[in-house]
Amino acid sequence: MSRVWSIAIHGGAGPIRQIDYGAAEAHMAETLKAASESLAAGGRAVTVAEQAVMALEESGHHIAGRGASPNALGQWELDAAIMDGETRNAGAVAALRGFRSPVRAARMVMLHSQHVMLVGKGASHFLRGRGLRRVWNPRDYYRPSVKRAVAPGELAHGTVGAVVLDGEGRLAAATSTGGLLGKMPGRVGDTPILGAGTWADERVAVSCTGQGEFFMRAAVAADVSARVRYGKMGVEQAAKAALDDVHFLGGDGGLIAVDVLGNVTTPFLSESMKRGIATSRGVFHVAVRR
Known about the structure:
Elements: E1 6-13, H1 22-40, H2 45-59, E2 78-84, E3 90-96, H3 102-112, E4 117-119, H4 120-127, H5 138-141, E5 159-165, E6 171-177, E7 198-200, E8 204-210, H6 212-218, H7 220-229, H8 235-249, E9 253-259, E10 264-265, E11 273-279, E12 284-287
Parallel strand pairs: 3-4
Antiparallel strand pairs: 1-5, 1-11, 2-3, 2-6, 5-6, 7-8, 8-9, 9-10, 11-12
């Protein structure tokens, strides 16, 4: 065992200036502490990533899981993905309705199907009877973390994610989102798209947050790994360069990434990004603003 481990989590880029994020920051710190204990005890990267994102989903502090907002028809359609860097096994769900933890649903797709992504009613049918917690009364369960009108053409967004390096040198990434506020029914962003919003391999693990349309067009998550592999960049330089491409296209957002050496970076283009880092080297940090 290398015994070097690192984890980074995020609660979405571009938080609103007027909101007090104290409770969200406190919960993120608790999530990091629990993940740190698991990693120090030899926990596997993909499981720790899943557990961290499940905690963020259930908290209701972010535009994901319990804090997600409905689409234009008043329905909750959620997306998530998880990827094991050691094997590149992955699972994803999109436009999922009726399940409390989209990232857990994505893990079920990875573990119990031959596919990578399932969507909508097909995903719901596959997941029934697999022990996942359901949402029977959406308007009672969901408590949107952001309640405001969305201007025409505005891509107001929110996501949660985790990237992990465990003590055996394995990498993993997981991301979950409620999508754009007031989105068009059926809209799917970058979160469940491998290589766009979520990626993990033997070099890096990446989880993105922002205006998904731009992250898909720039293939941001996989681009970070490609810049490390072919451009011989460090993870910090690679992540910044990938986000520069989003900026060039006119997009907004950020990402978290960790490499196989345990280096962590959390760059963002937006005014702020809810984020946290913990490492075996003693780093522990939670922040929202720059």
